[in-house]
Amino acid sequence: MPNVVGQTLDSARGILQAAGFDTVDGGASPSSAPAGQVIGTDPAGGSSASRGTTITIYTSDGTKVGVPLPNVVGQKAPAATATLQKAGFTNISYAWDPNPAGKALCSVTATDPAAGTTTPTTDEVTVYVAGVTTGNNGNGNSGNGNNNNNTAIVDPAACSG
User: Fold this and answer.
1) Where is the PASTA domain (predicted)?
2) How far apart are CA 126 and CA 17, in angstroms?
């Protein structure tokens, strides 16, 4: 039986049918191969099969294809989201940068994975966003002590524009 891995579905059907086999589409599965490319058959290519045997052809849905992660550091959170979505990333989460070191409110300080890393578009991308902290060094509510609570007061999801 011919090995048709790497072919398009239509090309694989043509090759297999010309060799005397019937074919059926086995559907698409997550794979690092480009969408629509044959990733396997049942029975497998190179095995022996009688003419007239029905060969199931499996293709890639392309979801595990890696693309370089765009550099969004310095962008505001909404612009970074748009940039990542335009590149095909769909699983984007946000976290506060615990030490934004003077970065502008709501600006991206880092990503995980880092910019330029080849990453499947379905993998999670964490975007670290600079927030604002309050250092309440006054007397607090009780009026008698130091309250050094540094707490984030802006939610990354609330960063807009």
Assistant:
1) 1-61, 63-131
2) 47
Instruction: Kindly list the distances between the CA atom of residue 98 and the CA atoms of 5, 34, 107, 146, 160, in Å, as whole numbers in the listed order.
Output: 48, 38, 13, 22, 20
User: Residue ranges of the chain with pLDDT lower than 70?
Assistant: 98-99, 132-158, 160-161
Q: Which amino acid is at 98?
A: P
**CATH 3.30.10.20 residue window(s) in the chain:** 9-60, 66-158
Domain 9-60 has CATH 2.160.20.10: no
- C-alpha 130/C-alpha 125 separation (Å) is 16
User: Which parts of 10-84 are beta strand (E)?
Assistant: 22-29, 38-42, 54-60, 66-68
Q: What is the pLDDT of residues 126-144, one digit of tens each?
A: 999 887 554 444 434 444 4
Class of CATH domain 66-158: alpha beta
Average pLDDT value over all residues in the chain = 82
For residue 93, give the H/E element and its range: strand 91-96
Q: Which letter, b or e, does each residue of 28-61 get, where b requires 16 or more Cβ atoms within 10 Å of its Cβ?
A: beebebeeebbbbbeeebeeebeeeeebebbbbb
